[in-house]
Predict the 3D structure of the following.
Amino acid sequence: MRHPLDTLDWPISTDRLLLRRAAPDDLDATWAFRQLPETHEWITAATKTYDDYRERFLRADRLTDLLIVELDGRVIGDLTLRIQDAWAQAEVADQAEGVQGELGWTLDPAYGGKGYATEAVRALIDISFNKLGLRRVHADCFYDNEPSWRLMERVGMRREQHTVRDSLHRTKGWLDGLSYALLAEEWPAHE
């Protein structure tokens, strides 16, 4: 079955950025910022060596959901869009197939504070709703990862859940978790 992202015309431009599908050649550029302490601390799977990262990055299922964020031809971050089924009762489960997306992002800290992450995630949400026809997007993070949840709020996502010490961090132990979401009808058409 063809992945929904395969149906779009790439690359997609924003005011300052270019979003495109990830390719094996993006390995070194993404490793450069993903291994930095500021990003390594919060990413879901923090590989310790380049070889481990290469093995994980080159998996077909990983590349399928990964988009690259470029600024003037330089890779400055990546985005993830995992298309998912919504929870549904058995009688209507077919109507819940592939209708929502889980969003993720990692930006090179050298490019932080300039609005690039906000611009890229807004574009990803717009792709999700206006090009792919999803009905809902969501994202999760540790409560301690304030830049991530602040970004979710900047792009208009709603905090739906604050859980108490339910999320296990690799070095910090059990932390609070946050879940944010946005429905297609809440997304302004002009975005």
About this structure: The CA atoms of residues 1 and 7 lie 12 Å apart.
